[in-house]
Amino acid sequence: MQPGEGRAMITFDAVHKRFPNGTTAVDDLSLDMPEGGVTVLVGSSGCGKTTTLRMINRMLDPTSGTIRVGGKDVLEQDAALLRRSIGYVIQQSGLFPHRTVLDNVATVPLLLGWGRRKARARASELLETVGLTAESGKRYPHQLSGGQQQRVGVARALAADPPVLLMDEPFGAVDPVVRTQLQDELMRLQSELNKTIVFVTHDIDEAVRLGDRIAVFRTGGRLVQCAEPGELLARPADAFVADFLGAERGLKLLSLSTLKDVEYEEAATVHADEPAPSRTSGGPRWLLVLSPARTPLGWLDTDEHDGGGTAAAAPLLPVRPLRGTDSLLSALNESVASPSGLVARVDDSGALMGVISREEIHTHAGRTHTAAARPSGSAV
Ligand SMILES: Nc1ncnc2c1ncn2[C@@H]1O[C@H](COP(=O)(O)OP(=O)(O)OP(=O)(O)O)[C@@H](O)[C@H]1O
């Protein structure tokens, strides 16, 4: 079973939220969030994502309708206890500035009466889990970078090992490089922990990357479509969703398929310490120069080389080898950037397996689209 296909851990049933000033933030929301999956809520500013999230742990209560977590109506549970049993991560990490990082992470276990020693031991273990050193536990939040503070926020939310994690734009305030690292880290953690995660973001790329299911909202708190990323990208329910996904939604779809099943062919290669062939040798124009461990070092253009010297000493053009876990989108990008139009496919150790042609990548890209565009359940 894929993550996100399990039974519903959180259910919204005809939920409305109207604020006293008359604003309807959430309008007739019925939605299931599967156990052990990541449900991402996306949509433009003010469409009710945060309000939806905050009703799950009773930071806000619905005006009408029912929300259940683990089968239990949240309104029948004590709000403070419910909040402690659900992890919550927000954009500006929300750490207590006058407490050390370790004490910040230990907050909920202490509230739950674990005792100082046990709570701190757990906090220290969690800092390591989210990629921080034990030493950083002694610092205060302002002594950490924005990205590190977000990691502490995630560690704090995980401290009491809650089954549900609510994340409200947790990576919204960090630069794109750190953001990608934090996303990678979250995916790694999730593959071990299998939490039920509800994740709010503005960023559709982040949603496609992290979500098992994506729920798209529009202004007025209306859910327009909730689907797996592939289905959403291939079959947006209406023009609003298509617009929201953007002009590159076809390319985004390719980011969901990997090179695992794409066929490769034998590559024309030359070893680094062999003599560099020239155009007069009559072989193929482009050769991949390999290290002794068969790692691709670069492309040799025999049309531009007069012969003489070793292949390693010849002017080489850069190669960016791809693995089976890399996406079809990366392959398409590399096939455009590669001087030979070929993509070098390597194994997990980085050794060359073969090359994939631009045509093969295009064929797979087309097939991915055709398959995704087919309504689910229809015959292949
Ligand atoms: N306490 C409140 N009182 C009145 N209106 C509110 C309150 N909180 C939110 N709203 C309004 O409810 C609507 C939904 O807000 P919400 O914060 O849930 O949207 P959002 O999709 O999370 O937006 P953003 O992406 O900008 O964070 C907005 O129109 C907002 O102005």
From TrEMBL:
Belongs to the ABC transporter superfamily. This is ABC-type quaternary amine transporter. Keywords: ATP-binding, Nucleotide-binding, Transport. It comes from Streptomyces tsukubensis. GO terms for molecular function: ABC-type quaternary ammonium compound transporting activity; ATP binding; ATP hydrolysis activity. The keyword Nucleotide-binding applies. Its EC number is 7.6.2.9. It is an enzyme of class 7 (translocase). It comes from the Bacteria. Gene3D superfamilies: P-loop containing nucleotide triphosphate hydrolases (3.40.50.300). The keyword ATP-binding applies. Pfam families: ABC_tran (PF00005). Residues 10-245 form the ABC transporter domain.
